[in-house]
Amino acid sequence: MSHETMKTRNMRPLGALLCILATCVLFPMEARADAINFGFVAVAGVVILVPLTLFTVLVEGLALAIGFRIPYRRTLMVMLAANLASLAAGIPVKIFNAWMYSQVLPRPLAPYFRQYPYAACLGAAVFFIVTLITEYAVVAAWLRRKHFEISRRRLATVVLIANTITYTVLAPLHYIATRPTNDVREFTDGSAWAEEPATELLYVSSTGNLCSVTTDGKNMRVRVPDMVRDYQFIPSQGIYLYRDGSNNLCLFRESDRTRVQCWSTDKRFMMEQVACRPDGGVVAYLSRIGELKPYELVLYDRHSGRTAKTGIMTDKDDYDPEIAWTEDPSKLLLLSSRTIRPVAIAADLTAVAQEPNASNAPLAKVYGRFSTGHWWGGGDWGASLSHDTNQTVQAYAMPGLGSHLRITHGGATFVVADNPGLLKLGNRGFNDVCLLSNGQELVFDDHHDIYLVNIEHRKVGRIVDGSKFIAISPRYQRQMRNANNGSEPIR
Predict the structure, then answer these.
(1) 76 pLDDT band (50/70/90 cuts)?
(2) Looking at the structure, do residues 301 and 351 belong to the same domain, yes or no?
(3) Are residue 61 and residue 105 in the same domain, yes or no?
(4) How many structural domains comprise the chain?
């Protein structure tokens, strides 16, 4: 066999291993979605991976050379192959560990951060065991191929010692580099420290009911014992207009605990497109004609159960028309084509659209999740309320892979986040934010739990498990803006 042939054969395993290395560098597990700069990830991977691999090869190669009494230069190549094989084996382990963390770590932030170090140790132990098995197999195959007589016990002992040395150095460094980070000074299990008087919130609980609670975590009660996805609240009458679990429009009155289904539909609608007369007697909604547009104004009488189509249509090019009832029970407002028009409603449910009027009557006081921005995904949708500001504080819930809550106060910015890993990608979706009227606190949710923030002390406590919260405050009060004349919004 020629020297060139032997050289080619010897290069094949090295070439395959280098391909594995390139794949792991270019496509690390952190780069698992769009909007990742793969060039940056590749460079960062090389900068981090190459020195770590060189360190482990040099240290473990030395351990093998001493343990097997083999020349050091001969153990370097086999340890390079063993470490690249364990690197490739670490990819499914990383996926398994991510699943394991989701199972063993609690969801609320305070216990999550307390227990994360223990979960990380467990994950490192899984990596360590897989590394031992992989490197043992690679070294054992190499010893057989080179006809070295080494007992299995001795081989296992040397591989164990070699990896213990490198893991003792690298495991703490890996934890420090990949642990979740944020700027919160204290996480608490509850929010009993809330400023007094505590603010009452409405929210959708983890069981799907509409409930209320105060920001100190007390006075919890069920308001609507039905599956609720989105809602409006008329406090003067104790009336809730909501989208139920089947996405139908329903009305619930607290005084007599009655539930009425006002509109059975398979079409998506926003809470800006439905309205209830202040006394709860009539419900109005915009029903799409066809798949997209236009919309027709429809009225439902709660007492008789009668539905009446008014024949009042929105503009064909209007994607997001709105309606809102005024304090006058015989009039609601229709926003279409960026213009607000009053609609007179008679007792027999006949309706007449009137000319736009700059002095429209004030709206009935209704509170809910109203916004000009919306989200939808799967079978759910709703308003986007991801930022809030006042004279001294700005708060933004950032979506996407790097999801976090950013709060700016007094010229300083701090972050509430759960972003483990080298790339610090967000591990939970921060969603709604609301600055409370006391000017010292903020409420936010992460699609699973609702939290209170003391802005000055950077303190975060869990209020309750739930999402889609509102406060009975101007931020959540129904308003309507005439976009054409730039006037102040009607409330």
Answers:
(1) very high
(2) yes
(3) yes
(4) 3
Evaluated on CA atoms 345, 350, 354, 356, the torsion sign reads positive
35 in the same domain as 174:
yes
pLDDT digits (tens, 9 = 90+) for 346-382: 999 999 988 887 667 899 999 999 998 888 877 889 9
**pTM for this one?**
0.85
CA-only gyration radius of the chain, Å: 31
User: Which pair of structure tokens corresponds to residue 449?
Assistant: 């739990």
| Domain end position, chosen among 345, 364, 383 | 364
Residue 402 CA to residue 205 CA, distance in Å, equals 26
Distance, CA of 271 to CA of 234 (rounded, Å) = 13
Cβ count near 14 (within 10 Å) = 13
Residues 6+ apart with CB under 8 A from 363: 324, 325, 326, 327, 333, 478, 479, 480, 490, 491
Cα separation of 349 and 33, whole Å? 52
Amino acid letter for position 394: Q
* H/E element, 10: helix 3-26
Q: How far apart are CA 454 and CA 192, in angstroms?
A: 12
- Shared domain check, 206 and 263: no
Contact 100, 52 (CB under 8 A): no
Where in the sequence is the domain holding 129, given as residue range(s)? 3-178
Contact 333, 343 (CB under 8 A): yes
Residues 31 and 148 in one domain: yes
